[in-house]
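Internal tracking record. Fields below are filled automatically when a chain is submitted to the structure queue. Please do not edit lines marked as system-generated. If the sequence contains nonstandard residues, flag them in the REMARKS field before resubmitting.
Queue: standard
Priority: normal
Entity type: single polypeptide chain
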Amino acid sequence: MVLCRLVCALLLAAGCCRRAAGVPGEAEQPEPELLEVEVGSTALLKCGASHSPGNFSHIDWFSVHKGKPTLIFRVRQGQGQSEPGEYQHRLSLEDKGTTLALTHVTPHDERIFLCQGKRPRSQERRIQLRVYKAPEEPSIQVNALGISVNSREPEEVATCVGRNGYPIPQVIWYKNGQPLKEEKNRVHIQSSQIVESSGLYTLRSVLKAQLLKEDKDAQFYCELNYRLPSGNHMKESREVTVPVFYPAERVWLEVEPVGMLKEGDRVEIRCLADGNPPPHFSISKQNLSTREMEEETTNDNGILVLEPAQKEHSGLYECQGLDLETTASLQSDQQELLVNYVSDVWVSPAAPESQEGSSLTLTCKAQSNQDLEFQWLREKTGKVLEKGPVLQLHNLKREAGGGYRCVASVPSVPGLNRTQLVNVAIFGPPWMALKQRKMWVQKDTLLNLSCEASGHPRPTISWNVKGTASEQDQDPQSVLSFLNVLVTPQLLETGAECVASNSLGKNTTIIFLELDSSRTGLNMSTVSPHTRANSTSTEKKLPEPESKGVVIVAVTVCVLVLAVLGALLYFFYKKGKLPCGRSGKQEMERNTSI
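SYSTEM-GENERATED OUTPUT FOLLOWS
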């Protein structure tokens, strides 16, 4: 019993001696005070209140790492001194020596800091420094190769990476806004982290899952949850969609454009399926003779293009889809394609001709799979003459000759129509566009003359002067002739004559040439009124302007005649041969005296 009391006394004495020696950490340690700061900021380590009665002139600061205290700063007589080491250049005294400021905090500074005062009595304070750093915006990388619904194990959906955070953030995965949790053989989340040289963490999380066809449009994203001195925070990645592969269950046909089709349209027939990737497509059309489906030639995308669409393209079509992975074959319902048409438009008589004053009936016919409407137009004016398949022309004149167009259209299909042009010929001698023309010209220059005539039968044109002639057909009954000729004195004197003739007669146009040196244009012409010649006619030259010299001569002759007549009257009066009375003579003398 005495021995036990002696041992206890020795142990108690040893403990007291160690406390008196000031060995930090050996005494009963109180719970450290918590101080939270962000990476890069300044941590203010307080040893005591500035207004406390304690003496802070003799203080030692220790950093405790893995239970081992290391002296980092001394305070003597209010003056601070850093100890050599990692904190040598980041420590300073503040607040009357009661606070130690640690600048540029890093994750490596997360530890306990011990403040120990020795005068007037031994005292110490422990501070637990917690360091935080928000991670960068999370990046997400989707599995671009896709996932098959036939996979028996969870496949990688996407990878989420959060860089440079401290401490390690927590990751949560979402699908369509709902959080995902671990589920055996269905959902697996695998996370790992890397410690950078800065002490910050980079988190990498991989989401693996078994997906269904319904997940083809699912939106996946990750969320990082982390803490700062200000509280809890979170950051979200962008949403991604992973390709999901699933076999097709149905195939069908689609035709563009939608609605009523007509000949001339560009029509596309394509196969569609509800599988991903789509199966290999082929398109078949029913043979009307054998009633068998025959495969059509499609382009590289499996689309059948009908351009331009014809009525022969109408019929039944179907699509076949072959899944190259499962070798399963699917067939669509048959779909009828109808290409509306108007064809075989003709007019009777095909080459109508008639005499002046008579009547003519034109009949238009056409074929179509739809109801037709007809109308007749005058070709040269575009005016609508008649609505219906029959056009009647009465009391025909020359002006009625020319083109008439029959238009056959389908009102129920906009833009579907066909036309047929027919030329009506009126028998008669040539008809000249102009009876006469007058042109101002320059001597010894090349002149281009023109002459137009029409008639049935179609007339021929000749010129009375030599030159280079050419012709241009206006319509089946009209011709336009050109003549290049040199302006000579003889041509100026005679002019040029254009003669049009057919089996029923002939007609002429006379072109007068006037020399004018003040004009520079070769074809400055004055055209007489557009009078048409309906029968054979002889044209007269335009009256030439009267000369001023002729007028002067005429006036002079008249004056001379009057002078001679006055002299004769005076001679007969003196001879007394004029039958004048005496009284008359006296009257004359009186008037003369006045």
